[in-house]
Design a protein that fits this description.
The complex is a heterodimer of chains A (322) and B (336). Chain A has 322 residues and is of the alpha/beta class. Chain A has 12 helices and 14 strands. Chain A folds into 2 domains: 182 residues, Rossmann fold (3-Layer(aba) Sandwich); 127 residues, Rossmann fold, CATH 3.40.50.920. The relative contact order of chain A is 0.12. In chain B, helix 3 crosses helix 9 and helix 6 packs parallel to helix 7. Classes of the chains: A alpha/beta (322), B alpha/beta (336).
């Protein structure tokens, strides 16, 4: 066990991967000399040089597309897109090419590319740097999506992503970079497995990424009221670990899904539908959702706080089910 | 290579010229047959014909080695066939059959062949350019002496990805040969109605990429320009750009009523047909007799008939296999 920050865990995983495999390289805006907009790649340029730590122009579509091409050509690119909002400029390459090439070529080609990006709100960055579009990516077959919520997962899921033969998108909630925790250097992780972060009997709280901490806080607050909540961290958003969700709900009979995305068409909606389809008879209450308010993310702190899921809202929603 | 030079060429060169003619003819007859079977409902979806533009793919392809990569567009039957993909596999793909190049997953616009490093048809205009840049980046990083040929239409020049890709290829000094097929219409929009600068190859020069424009109706001019540019890319690893001035004789797709250009204009270009002008030149130089031309037509007709037979006989992919090839099975890791 080694104590470090989430940022250091991502950096360490990239460093270890690049040391182990000469095909692995990093490219993106300001990943080199600047050290990464969130300082994730700080120091890597010095160790690996500008060939493998590639600063790109502000051309999201083309450097993501070049990642696809490099993967087709035998490299194992890690592409950093500064924020999830910027990734919209690369959606053509992601949805029309990365996600389709395997299928469109009848299985002749694979795209072993990892794309990392910061997502989420809570930093006063307003409506063009703060959103959570993870569910848009999770909607698309042909790519996999993961959202590490812990320091150990930041490392483990990145290393697991690099083992995948298909494109993997990693969403790193920007508020998590400073999070401290332990990484386990032992067992390799697998994409597609959710984790039960807290065992409980009365209700299942299902979340991912930046809202895991708030959900655990809510669970602690509820524990003081003798409400015993189980907390599931999805970790992988596609393919969803439906079995773990249904197993938990079949024991607790209640579920609340917490998601920083907007409610309409959210990942929370998908999870809710899967519970309805797979555990309807187990439910003692309707599945509830705590999502972001349906507004572009506002700038002022009190407005932004009100727009995003908070521990108190989660706890209140749970109480309303009991 | 000029016609007068051809006269002095040895038998080998004459064979090469006849091979170019035969390939153009094969593509022309393949496309005509495709249009015919489309109307019979054998091919569905979109069908974009290469008729009129054959000299570009046929003239360009000899410059590329088996190890080089080819990236094409949704009008790519000609490129696929010129690269050596059997006409039957392309036709079977358009029939949606399991013996098609993509087992019926791609269709006319998405022909792929890993064994020939044919990285596909891209149906989002400009979408193939970043991929070509990435393929070349991999070659550069792995120190492989290969180049990537990237075909695209003049419509792509209006896309942001075109400019981003020009910049990145030049900035990172990547071995890409950009091959712009300027057939003068982006679907129905004439070049002058969509571009402030219609001399397209000049745009590449803005990115410090050496470029030139070539008569895309002249297969020998195409061959000479591409072979020179490909050799230059191979030599110094820097990108090059060629604009081919060409014309499609048929509508944009089978769905296009072709209302945006005059019949007179189309007829005028048909006089410059790359096949007939080349055949006439070979005939006038005494390199192609009428009997030889007829024999070539018969030979091509037999190959097309065989392609249709392959497509007709091909099995349908079982619907139970609908979701195969969305993800890669874990045991077969992607190979370089």
């Amino acid at each position: 066990m080694t104590k470090m920050t989430y940022r250091e865990a991502v950096r360490g995983a990239m460093r270890d991967a690049m040391r182990a495999d000469p095909r692995v390289f990093l490219m993106g805006e300001d990943v080199g000399r600047y050290g990464g907009a969130f300082a994730v790649s700080l120091g890597l340029l010095k160790e690996f040089g500008p060939e493998r730590i590639r600063d790109t122009p502000l051309s999201e579509s083309t450097f993501v597309g070049a990642g696809i091409g490099a993967a087709l050509g035998g490299m194992r690119p890690i592409v950093e897109v500064m924020t999830i909002n910027f990734s919209l400029l690369a959606l053509d390459q992601i949805v029309n090419n990365a996600a389709t090439l395997r299928h469109m070529s009848g299985g002749q080609f694979s795209v072993p590319m990892v794309v990392r990006m910061a997502s989420g709100g809570g930093r006063g960055m307003a409506a063009q740097h703060s959103h959570s579009f993870e569910c848009w990516y999770a909607h698309v077959p042909g790519i996999k999506s993961v959202a590490p919520a812990t320091v150990a997962d930041a490392r483990g899921l990145l290393l697991a992503a690099l083992e995948e033969p298909d494109p993997v998108f990693i969403f790193e909630h920007a508020l998590l970079y400073a999070l401290e925790g332990d990484t386990e250097d032992g067992t390799p992780m697998r994409i597609g497995e959710a984790a039960v972060r807290r065992k409980g009997r009365d209700v299942t709280l299902i979340t991912y990424g930046g809202t895991l901490g708030k959900t655990l806080q809510a669970a602690e607050a509820l524990a003081a009221e003798q409400i015993d909540a189980e907390v599931i961290d999805l970790r992988t958003l596609r393919p969803l670990d439906t079995a773990t969700i249904l197993d938990s709900v079949s024991r607790t009979h209640r579920a609340v899904v917490i998601d920083e995305g907007w409610r309409t068409g959210s990942l929370a909606a998908e999870v809710s539908a899967q519970i309805m389809e797979g555990a309807f008879d187990s439910l003692d209450a309707p599945v509830a959702r705590v999502c972001s308010a349906e507004v572009p993310m506002p700038y002022a702190k009190h407005l932004e706080d009100a727009a995003m899921p908070q521990a108190a809202m989660i706890a209140a929603t749970v109480r309303s089910l009991l | 290579m000029m016609a007068t030079e051809l006269l002095a060429l040895p038998e080998l060169q004459r064979d090469h010229a006849l091979k170019l003619l035969r390939q153009m003819l094969l593509i022309r007859r393949f496309e005509e047959k495709s249009a015919e079977v489309y109307t019979l409902g054998k091919i569905r979806g979109f069908l974009h014909l290469y008729i009129g533009e054959e000299a570009v793919a046929v003239g360009a392809m000899p410059a590329f080695a088996p190890d080089d990569a080819i990236v094409a567009t949704y009008r790519e039957h000609g490129h696929a066939i010129a690269r050596g993909i059997p006409a039957g596999a392309v036709m079977a793909e358009m029939y949606g059959k399991a013996n098609g190049t993509s087992r019926g997953r791609g269709g006319s616009m998405h022909i792929f062949d890993a064994s020939r490093r044919f990285y596909g048809g891209y149906a989002i205009v400009g979408g193939g350019l970043p991929i070509a840049v990435g393929l070349a980046l991999a070659d550069k990083m792995l120190n492989r002496p290969r180049i990537t040929a990237c075909f695209f239409g003049e419509g792509a020049v209006a896309e942001g990805e075109f400019h981003e890709s020009m910049n990145l290829a030049a900035l990172w000094q990547l071995p890409v040969l950009f091959l712009c097929e300027n057939n003068r219409y982006a679907m129905g929009t004439a070049l002058a109605r969509s571009e402030s600068e219609t001399d397209l190859h000049l745009k590449a020069q803005g990115y410090h990429i050496e470029s030139r424009a070539v008569d895309g109706m002249d297969v020998l001019a195409v061959e000479s320009a591409v072979s020179e540019a490909a050799a230059a890319v191979r030599r110094d690893g820097l990108p090059r750009f060629i604009e081919f001035r060409t014309y499609r004789f048929r509508a944009h797709s089978m769905a296009d009523p072709d209302l945006y250009r005059s019949k007179a204009e189309v007829e005028e270009w048909k006089h410059r047909c790359p096949i007939e002008t080349f055949a006439a030149m070979l005939r006038s130089e005494g390199l192609l007799s009428d009997a030889e031309r007829q024999a070539m037509e018969a030979d091509v007709a037999a190959e097309i008939a065989e392609a249709i037979a392959v497509a007709d006989a091909g099995p349908w992919e079982p619907t139970e296999d609908l979701t195969r090839d969305v993800y890669t099975p874990r045991q077969t890791r992607a190979s370089p």
